[in-house]
């Protein structure tokens, strides 16, 4: 896969710390992601992967450090202070899409209604325009024939593809994926990963927390291995996955690849 290193900076984290009570989940993370780059984040449970993703879209704003989105600081308070007055929530919500492990669809709304709702409420997009956009996106993820079905009548893989379409409907500049296949039966994983591959091929900037080593090897421009709230190792997939330098990375990959 071609390197995305020629793109400008899309996401930049500098010295990011995140705590939950006495537990320090992120311990001074520094990371830069270029426009059009696909970065896969690997690591054991509790390593801080999901928290890192949630900091990028300010679901979990950090206590220390700074985050830039498209070279604009999104969570630094005025002066040296911190707090909500310095969070660029609207700026972030308009540019960052996130898809979670759980689909979080509205059970009482059809697939199409799930994809159009935020367009109308958040973007003030006219209903007809939102439906057109939603229809196009559901067809794009292979669900054109399912747009009037309710979530309970969809498989897990189909629900996750609706969730991806819903995120894309907001015209994000960055897409975050938080272990989106881990709740799926194995035979349904491929259909979701195929959609993500297509997004990567189209140049979408993506941060992907995953245990799907094959996907990371094939699609990522860069692989990051986290443990204990820090980035232990990062580099091209071939280097990190095939010839890791750090013992913690080697041990983790040994366990994952044995499954």
SSE topology string = EEEHEEHEHHHEHEHEEHH
What is the C-alpha radius of gyration, as a whole number of Å?
18 Å
Give the number of DSSP strands. 10
Number of helices: 9
SS-derived structural category = alpha/beta
Work out the helicity level.
25-40%
Structural shape: globular
Strand percent estimate: 15-25%
Query: pLDDT average, as an integer?
Result: 90
Taking the alpha carbons of the first and last residues, their distance comes to 27 Å
Uncertain ranges? 1-5, 77-82
Give a written overview of the molecule.
The chain is an alpha/beta fold and 259 residues long. It is built from 9 helices and 10 strands. The chain has helices at 49-56, 89-93, 111-122, 127-140, 156-168, 186-201, 213-219, 237-242, 247-258; strands at residues 9-20, 23-34, 38-42, 64-69, 72-73, 96-99, 174-178, 205-209, 222-227, 230-235. The strands form 2 sheets. It has a 6-stranded mixed beta sheet with strand order 6-7-8-3-9-10, sandwiched between helices. Helix 3 packs across helix 4 (127-140) and helix 5 packs parallel to helix 6. The longest helix has 16 residues, at 186-201. It is globular and about 50 Å long. The two termini are 27 Å apart. Residues 1-5 and 77-82 have low confidence and may be disordered.
